[in-house]
Design goal:
It contains 6 helices and 4 strands, in the order H-H-E-E-E-E-H-H-H-H.
Length: about 230
């Protein structure tokens, strides 16, 4: 005959209860550990996915950047060859060279035209192309000094040329009212400066006053600067 559990030793009942509680606690802890492990695995998977997505995005951006750079370089090589062989640019005394064998940096030599204070002067212009060319245009600067209202002589911005078309092309890649604008058109605009002074946008008010009050003295100053800073030979 089996003993009735109700009449078992109270200590044994208490021990069984304690064991049951311990088992329940262990089960709960195991469940929590499993949940934590699942959460950690999910977090790791999400992190890995994010890392992979970031790596893919970076690779795509790098590839796009490389394609853009290769496209720009190919275009610049072609334009350099075309400008170097252009008869019209040759007629106004333009010749071309690369700076440090870099197609993003050109050096253009222009001979000062006859009948101007700049006659027979050798004037050097630096052209710097941006990496996103032709979405944005190039920057033009005189390398040697020239006595002109529209060429900056200040140290920080030396040689900068104040021409609306150049500034617009450099910042937007386009020029208002012109369907086609590039290096050739820009150089013709610069060449035209040898024949005129833009009093509406001078870099020096002192030079502007001299030009307006005593144009002969202004021309003489320009002629002397040409002999001093742009001497041929």
């Amino acid at each position: 005959m089996m003993n009735n559990p109700m009449f078992m030793n109270p200590n044994m009942n208490q021990n069984m209860m304690n064991m049951m509680k311990m088992n329940m606690m262990m089960n709960n802890m195991n469940n929590m550990n499993m949940q934590n492990m699942n959460n950690m695995n999910n977090m790791n998977m999400n992190n890995m996915n994010n890392i992979n997505m970031n790596m893919m995005q970076n690779n795509m951006n790098n590839n796009m950047g490389m394609n853009q750079k290769n496209s720009t370089l190919t275009r610049l090589k072609k334009e350099y060859a075309l400008c170097s062989a252009d008869n019209e640019l040759s007629l106004i005394g333009c010749s071309f060279a690369l700076i440090d064998n870099n197609y993003y940096k050109w050096k253009v030599t222009i001979i000062g035209p006859k009948g101007t204070p700049y006659e027979n002067g050798l004037f050097f212009i630096q052209i710097i192309f941006p990496e996103d060319y032709p979405q944005k245009g190039a920057e033009f600067r005189f390398i040697n000094q020239i006595y002109h209202l529209n060429v900056d002589l200040k140290k920080k911005s030396f040689g900068h040329i104040c021409l609306t078309s150049l500034n617009e092309w450099r910042t937007t890649g386009k020029v208002s009212g012109k369907s086609c604008y590039g290096v050739k058109q820009a150089l013709f605009d610069i060449f035209y400066l040898f024949f005129t002074q833009g009093v509406e946008s001078p870099y020096s008010e002192e030079m502007k006053e001299l030009y307006q009050s005593n144009p002969k003295q202004f021309e003489e100053n320009a002629r002397q600067w040409t002999k001093k800073y742009a001497k041929m030979g």
